Every structure is written in C-alpha cells, then in structure tokens.
Amino acid sequence: MKNTTYTKVPTQKIRANNGVTYAYRDLGDPVGVPLVAVTHLSANLDNWDPEVIDGLARHQRVITFDYQGVGSSSGRVPTSIQGMASDTLNFIKIMHLTKVNLLGFSMGGMVVQEMLLQQPELAQHVILAGTGPRGGQGIEHVTKISDLDLLRAIFTLTDIKTTLFFTRTENGKTSAKQFLKRLKRLKRRQQQRDRTISWVAYRRQLKAINRWGRDKPADLSGITQPVLILNGDHDRMVPTEPNTYDLHRQLTNSQLVIYPDAGHGGIFQNGPDFVKRANEFLAE
Q: Which residue numbers delimit the AB hydrolase-1 domain (predicted)?
C-alpha cells in the first residue's frame, strides 16, 4: 500500500489454519524486509501514533495487527506472554513473511523477546520500547498501576494514557494532549475503525503481564540481532531503572536511548527523533 497514510490505509483480514482471523493494516513500500509492529496492553489498530507509523512507512513496509481476541481479530487472548508470542508468529507465518524487522512497544516488547527465543532466525533488526526483561523489577505491579490510573481517568474524564504514558511536567502534559489529538484522527476514520478491546480480553492481557513479571528471568545472551532499546527516563509502568538498562546489558548487540522528561510513551513524546533513529537503525 505505497503512498498512503495510516489514517487512510484499509483494514484487511486474513484467516489462519487454526480458524483465527487477524485484522491488520499494511502500508509503505513492499520491497525489502517489512517492519511488524507489536503493540501494547489493551491496544488495537487505532492506538498506534499515526505520525510515527507514517514516518516509518516512508522508508519500509510497515504492518500493524490485532492480537487474536483483540479489536477486529477473532479468537481468545492468551493468558501468557509466551502464548502471545506464538500468536504473533502465527500471524507472521500466514502473511508469508520469512524475514522481518520487529518493533515491540510495552507489552509488545515483552512479546517480541519471547518471539526471539521461540524463533530466533526470523528477525533481522529489533526495536524494543517502553519495556523490560522477563521477571523485571516492578513489572508484576502493572495491574495495580493500570487499575488505579483507570479509576483516576474515569473520575477525571481523561484518557488513561495521559498518566500512564507521559510525565506530569508541563512538557509531558503538552505532549500527551498532542498525542491524543493524533489518535483522534484515527478514530475519525470514516470506515474500518477498529473495535475497542473487551473487558475480558483486557484482564487476560493483564494476567499474562503479571505472570511474566513474576516469572524466572530469561537468558537473552543468545539473541545476536542488532537491537535498539528506547524508553523515557520516568517510566511508571515498566520502571526505566533497572529494567531498560538491564535489557541493554543482557542484549550484547544493543543500542540504548533514554529520553529525558519522558515516560512510558517516550517514543510518541519524541516521535520525530524516534522515527529518525529507527529508520537509520533499520537501514544499517
């Protein structure tokens, strides 16, 4: 789908042999290794920052998708991160992709790590943002933090991503407003808007993250692909210190970027810089 934008690209569907139908969007130049974007807790196709996706798609093919049981995909959400990794690998397989680059944000970064352990030869380059290693410090508290911020969002009539993704400084508040404006462009799509995740699916994802955070750490020493690791310096959901730095230490072929005065959604708060870094990294 060359020469289109994320707000206009159609939603497509593809059916797997196990009966699951995946919803996805596909844009950018089809030549070369595609970038598969693996998304965060509770997210559907309309939760990707359109300016970030468009910036990446100017240099390569970009594919976003709904996990099974989420948005417009059928099936049931797995209750383990490893299950979500297998689910994502299944989607990539039925798309007939033999080599991909991977972008994993937040829970998606956890899923990507498990994908690399399950099928290490698949990925050429890997980008991990706002995430940490299995068993990382504080990851088991994501449910508690998410529930508290959800209550706050309900009572204050604000979007939960305002506090989960961004700092409470003036810069962070301004960035949050701009980010939410960009997401509204996706929600104003005249057709093929995605479905909001169900409450049951959301709780199953939270259960998977909680289990993963309490699980035994994985051995990431066998991952040899180039990895770009990014986060804000104040991530409340997956604490930057020590998790982001631990990932960098464990992944020996990795580069680390920490954005100042930024939170969990640092790559959206610093979208133009992230897009530039990501495109240069993927072109190496």
A: 42-269
